[in-house]
Amino acid sequence: MPASYAYLGPEGTFTEVALRTLPEAATRELVPMVSVPAALDAVRNGEAEAAFVPIENSVEGGITTTLDELVAGEPLMIYREVLLSITFALLVRPDTKLSEIKTVTAHPAAQPQVRNWMKANLPDVVWESAASNADGARLVQEGRYDAAFAGEFAAAKYGLVPLETGIHDAENAQTRFVLVGRPARPAAPTGADKTSIVLWQRDDHPGGLRDLLGEFAVRGVNLMLLQSRPTGAGIGNYCFCIDAEGHISDRRVAETLMGLKRICLQVRFLGSYPRAGVRAEDVPTALPGTSDDEFVKASDWVARCQDGRF
Amino acid sequence: MPASYAYLGPEGTFTEVALRTLPEAATRELVPMVSVPAALDAVRNGEAEAAFVPIENSVEGGITTTLDELVAGEPLMIYREVLLSITFALLVRPDTKLSEIKTVTAHPAAQPQVRNWMKANLPDVVWESAASNADGARLVQEGRYDAAFAGEFAAAKYGLVPLETGIHDAENAQTRFVLVGRPARPAAPTGADKTSIVLWQRDDHPGGLRDLLGEFAVRGVNLMLLQSRPTGAGIGNYCFCIDAEGHISDRRVAETLMGLKRICLQVRFLGSYPRAGVRAEDVPTALPGTSDDEFVKASDWVARCQDGRF
Amino acid sequence: MPASYAYLGPEGTFTEVALRTLPEAATRELVPMVSVPAALDAVRNGEAEAAFVPIENSVEGGITTTLDELVAGEPLMIYREVLLSITFALLVRPDTKLSEIKTVTAHPAAQPQVRNWMKANLPDVVWESAASNADGARLVQEGRYDAAFAGEFAAAKYGLVPLETGIHDAENAQTRFVLVGRPARPAAPTGADKTSIVLWQRDDHPGGLRDLLGEFAVRGVNLMLLQSRPTGAGIGNYCFCIDAEGHISDRRVAETLMGLKRICLQVRFLGSYPRAGVRAEDVPTALPGTSDDEFVKASDWVARCQDGRF
Amino acid sequence: MPASYAYLGPEGTFTEVALRTLPEAATRELVPMVSVPAALDAVRNGEAEAAFVPIENSVEGGITTTLDELVAGEPLMIYREVLLSITFALLVRPDTKLSEIKTVTAHPAAQPQVRNWMKANLPDVVWESAASNADGARLVQEGRYDAAFAGEFAAAKYGLVPLETGIHDAENAQTRFVLVGRPARPAAPTGADKTSIVLWQRDDHPGGLRDLLGEFAVRGVNLMLLQSRPTGAGIGNYCFCIDAEGHISDRRVAETLMGLKRICLQVRFLGSYPRAGVRAEDVPTALPGTSDDEFVKASDWVARCQDGRF
């Protein structure tokens, strides 16, 4: 398997910074790609061992390009997730003063995070969109714009300096990234895990989605994320991207997946992997009756009943 | 094992008639007992191979003595059930005319079934209770009463004749009987089966009973009977005697029992056995997603996901 | 309305003792009746203002005669309930010694409460059933039996003395009695109330009973009792006698009753009345979102939405 | 109120075509705006009577800009919806041949609909993004690009001709648009209506979302759309944009909204309005027990119970 990770480029973006927090990234070649589909295609084609792409952020919600790529096409699996806090620096050429800035650039996704700061500090400046935050920095280096919003880490690479750092309109702004590979055995459970799936409903009746969620609830499995995505079968037809607490090797998760598989038109397993930023000791105990131990005991008891020994 | 069946006596009652409808009864010694507890104790003590007792009728509902005996004490299991339509004959000594009847007797349980008929046909007669319908017939034979309500089959035994037959205030009056033995492997599924259990709730919260019934509903298992019985822990404390469609070897039933075992304080398995009066071809198909085949496929799919092969 | 209360007689039974704990009983004529149906018929016929009858006990569960009378016939309503602890005294003629007792009597319902005590203290004695505990005491007075199990209060009336008191095999043995009248406006809520209803399901499908219980759960109304009783439409056909926490004037209870009325074949309202033995300050607060205040606010909000003012 | 409708411009886009299908648009001044927020701000500021914007399409799902604008800020209400099938024409200057096309342009949203067609028919052409499809047509008119994908209706306005029409990779590609105004009384129900709301959960527990959906299910209200949007409180925190069948003046919808209002942290009502493309006679009858008539009867019955008259 090629020892390379594809990631959503270019270099010098938040994605690269997030990727470098993974220990295994140190031993791989990191290859920037022009888009999420390009990064995931590299995995599907066998050109890359894995791809590292954003999947959710606190301002935009689910990254629909990533979700749609995981929902359709050759099956892929998520093996790791990384959470990164997003704050911007205002990068300028050395010696540029705030009052001299007439034009500013960044990727459009940066706008919700810097809009209020701009109103307060750069009210009359002209905004131009860049293909990426790193590309914006490059354009400032080339003199095309006066300033760029980007991660502070991008300054050095482009010979710029941060005039202001820690810019973030919304508190707790974070982006979640995932490391995606071809299907293989999931990593062993850590005690603080997450399982991702996609569900397609068999039909549409009152309470249909509730019945589907009932498969989780009756086994005490908590939902962490539910995002609807179009199925392509016409407006109003959606499948559901779901993140649930726990690992597929947990009995309650496995039985929930079985239940969903039985009642859904289709279920796609997207992996079980460690939750970023949560330690096993901080995960609440399973609800009464839903621990592995209780599952095993109940299963043994039914087996004894089937044999008439109890 | 002793080749005898104990049953709720005396001879000549509906219970004996029902018991004789079982082919296997022809090869056993049939031993009448004075009470349901006595019949079941004979099984528990090893004096009888099985006991045959009434468990439900259309007028009184669940026979509480039988239910309470099954709920508590050494575990027993149900292996067969029999449904018997209950209609009464008015038995008299030969040559007695309707107009000569001044006193009539029967077991109190007969009263709801003959009350209206008596009002219309014997308005001024005096009713006296007997220990059993057969005993009432005996007392008529002895000349103590003028007439007895009993099964028509009891006439010959006591030298009486039926003056009127087919007496039944309520249409569809039936009694259900069960053949009860010590725990052993349940009979193989027939396609029209029933599973009996007793449930004790772990605690009492709003929706507690609904959650418990949710274990059935989420797996498409239909409830046929739900009867509450006191736990003995004080007024308002009940356990639930439940009959559900299907056999413990059906995957949906087995998983339901596992779920109940996990969330209940206690579950007692009372057996899986053929439904009386229902043929396999008349049982509705399992709900979508709940057949054995779908369970197996779903289980296989989860196993493949756990291995990363799909 | 006649100022009399009918009750299940004869005099000197636990029922009379329970009835006399009601302050209003002091100003009524108390009329013993031979049976529960007779007592309730007296109310239906206008001969009595109300009837006082047992409805549940901790050994037998629901008193089926009483439940069946409330379920069918002219509608009646429950206005009060009384809880009475049941312990027996062994009543004998003065100077009788324990060793001299050869025969003992009582109503059959007493047996589960005294069986173990008898095994330990009167192992060889002969038991004979009496029509009521009071009647048993009378038969001892007449010399027909040596001893009777009855309430200690019955001793004086029949010239007997208690040889032993406080006999009760089961701890917490209690009987619940209700005061039943013709339909009228329920008593005002006290903060610790109970609502009794009877439900007939519209049809029978998997999850049917769960849906019905969902009407309670979704509005945070706790179930206190669920008893199935035959509908008379043949074996396996049941209606459900249900006690729920709260008063029909509570918004959550009223909306629950509306929901049940809509989805059930039939609903019979049996009254809202104070819970015996529970003070308002000991009743847990309504679940979040289910208080009267929250219902009123939500209703006002919907009305504003319907007007486009919000 | 100003007699103008703001809409997502520029002129000559699908949005304008969809808007002109509304009869009331004929009597208003139609004002193109540069963005969805700009169009909705015009309504909030009182500069426009209403705004017409896309809210969902079959390829992208919910239009997040529109949803986020409706979720936050001054409350707005939806009064109408329009469904438009989306097929593209390839517009060129007169006399341009297919083989002469080297560059093509359109809004990026057009790409998923024309990608396959391009691969098959224009494999080597260079794609450049335009600010809107209409703008792309203008740039072709100016000679900057050779061809533009746009609605066929845009040809005449820019002096172009359709070289090919009916281009659509996905069958059933549709966009849904809504007419949004300041809160006012919703239009009267038509029998084929839809109600839009936003829900914020009070807390996050296993089954929390299922409980929320239970408010719909228990009253037989069908869900048509469920889209999660970030609340702004950090990653993983979502509110739910929901479309449900029925009108707020339907009793089952009103009671559902009340239930949600009680258990949710917050509920925002976004309007009840006629469903596009559905006639009242094609809407399935309400489930048993959920019609207005049944609600009224149940409410009357509870009122009679509260009075003791039944």
Question: Layout of SSEs?
Answer:
Four copies of one chain form a homotetramer.
Chain A (H helix, E strand, L loop, with lengths): L3 E5 L5 H6 L9 E5 L2 H9 L5 E8 L3 E2 L1 H8 L5 E9 L2 E5 L10 E4 L4 H11 L4 E4 L3 H9 L5 E4 L3 H4 L3 E7 L6 E8 L11 E9 L6 H10 L5 E8 L7 E8 L5 H13 E11 L17 H16 L3
Parallel strand pairs in A: 1-2, 1-3, 7-8, 7-9
Antiparallel strand pairs in A: 3-4, 3-11, 5-11, 6-9, 6-10, 12-14, 12-15, 13-14
Organism (chains A, B, C, D): Streptomyces avermitilis
InterPro entries (chains A, B, C, D): ACT-like_dom_sf, ACT_dom, Chor_mutase/pphenate_deHydtase, Preph_deHydtase, Preph_deHydtase_CS
Subunit structure (chains A, B, C, D): Homodimer.
Oligomer: homotetramer
Indicate the mean pLDDT of chain A. 94
Radius of gyration of chain A: 23 Å
Total domains of chain A = 2
The strand count of chain A comes to 15
Which architecture name of the largest domain in chain A does CATH use?
3-Layer(aba) Sandwich
Enzyme class (chains A, B, C, D): lyase
GO biological process, one term (chains A, B, C, D): L-phenylalanine biosynthetic process
EC number (chains A, B, C, D): 4.2.1.51
Pathway (chains A, B, C, D): Amino-acid biosynthesis; L-phenylalanine biosynthesis; phenylpyruvate from prephenate: step 1/1
